[in-house]
Design goal:
Structural class: alpha/beta
Oligomer: single chain
Distance between the termini: 11 Å
Shape: globular
Mean pLDDT: 95
Number of helices: 12
Radius of gyration: 20 Å
Strand content: 25-35%
Length: 360
Amino acid sequence: MRAAVLHETGQDKLEVVDDIEPAGFGPGKVRVRIRATGLCHSDLSAMNGTLPQPAPFVPGHEGAGEVLEVGEGVTHVRPGDRVLVCWLPACHTCPSCRRGQRHLCLTGFLNAGTANFRRTASGADVFGFAGTGTFAEEAVFDAPCAVPIPDDVPFEIAALIGCGVTTGLGAAFNTARVEAGSSVAVIGCGGVGISAIQGARACGAAQIVAVDPVASRREAALRFGATEAVAPDELAEAKQRLTGDEGFDYVFEVVGRSATARTAYETTRRGGTLCVVGAGAMDDQLQFNMFELFFDEKRILPSLYGGGDVLRSYDRAVALWRAGRIDLEGLITHRVSLGEINEAIGQMRTGEALRTSISL
């Protein structure tokens, strides 16, 4: 079968190969035919080493498809079922799961160190990013990674719900808990940032300022619910004009860099909330002085995968989409085949694409 493979961390491009096969099928596993997958910035972060991932590996973690085969003990899905791929499944038994913080379960991360592909000629192991690897025609996952989806949800929409949409909406709903009538700024307006904007709008925020250096993304943010869109060097003026220089009630950092996180902190009002959504590097340090932490009493809230129970978050996203309260189709600005994956990566790096849907 075909898959896109990164041979070594740090390489800019993927190689599309046809001599790879799923590996590891057995009890507690499912084999899925991937029909659509989104290109998420986290895939690029794994490729360049910002996010740890053993190589060689198949990127992709935002996918949907059909179940081909189920292993012994798997009862929640059967062959033919339509599913989305959950890259962070809950084990329901670890301390985090027992506390009700299932999005902090480490099971999914541990899966990243177990190969679920192999080259057919050499038998060499190939890993799937985050224990999944959806840039492949088929893949084997732990059963909880396969989450049934309703028949009316297209595969390309379900794929987006599997990561970016859930992350952005959940940051607004679950982590920050944006209040109606509040002021919001979102720094970084790719697919996740746009989803945070839609979440803030659904929560009833009165002012939503989108911040991004790419003009096309600023224009898109206005279509998705931002009340204003500015370039980074215009943010200070917007803060002065809209809040009397006090700062915004909620600021979402969706870039994953200490410099933008520091800007987000300074843009948040005293007593306000800074929500860190971007996935950054382990060696990128963010500094505060002890006085400002004490005196300003700003809440600093990281948000991993939307900060809540992902299955409930999936259901909420579907319900809002059905009701016309959020636009998911509009997030997909490009559609490509697997053979065009490197062109899609280039478009994401330049900011041209919000989300690219890859058909397999």
